[in-house]
Amino acid sequence: MRLVSLLVAAVFASSVLNAEVVEEKITLPNKLGTAVMYYDNAASKPAPAVVVVHEWWGLNDYARKRAKQLAGEGYAAIAVDMYGTGKSTSHPKDAMSFMNAALAEPEKMNARFDAALDILRKQSSVDGSKLYAIGYCFGGAVVLNQARRGLDLAGVASFHGSLGTETKVEPGTIKAKVLVATGGADTMVPAKQVAGFVEEMTTAGVDFELLSFPGVMHSFTNPDSTVLGKKYDMPLGYDAHADQVSWAALMRMLAK
Hints:
Elements: H1 2-18, E1 21-28, E2 33-40, E3 47-53, H2 61-72, E4 76-80, H3 92-103, H4 106-121, E5 126-136, H5 138-148, E6 155-159, E7 177-183, H6 191-203, E8 208-213, H7 225-232, H8 240-255
Parallel strand pairs: 3-4, 3-5, 5-6, 6-7, 7-8
Antiparallel strand pairs: 1-2, 2-4
């Protein structure tokens, strides 16, 4: 019995050592822009997959890190550039300009998201019945709006994203489970907006979970946010506890 246990452990260790997260640069169709896909090349069966949408800074190292982190957990992930082809910055003035330009063309943003989702769906290593989307800040609002479109997603998760909408959804529109993680001291997502979102989801009969962290500021999942907040006098701040708890909630949602 001891020998069998050792052999099983050895096989498991070997599979972990042989696993490798692969990075693949993607060109979206119809000149929509680019994306980066990550997956475990040693996966033994089709896995759930996740579209990752970046903060207002653009598709930077942080967004790619989150997608790669998901691949390390056994999920395929594609980080899609909602600004098109490589616009990213660490200056809020540029970020605001990039974001506003994207928001002015919602149809193009939807097309980019749809293209990324379709690319995941076509991968032989992906379980097409378990497609998710997560987003941070600007990206959090994007993925919530994709759910509001009624897309066939298993779940969406918004981390410190805007929760407001001009057109509240009708009951039965949202098919996805919804996870929202927000900071109680996030001035960009005020309590009134959170309350409106809860009312919207409840009225629409959505299966949702809301995590609110008292005293936590905007961009709490990004370790660079505290430095950026101080540099540009913005109410940003990393919070390790909120980051860990919200990520654990995401892992639970993906595992269902």
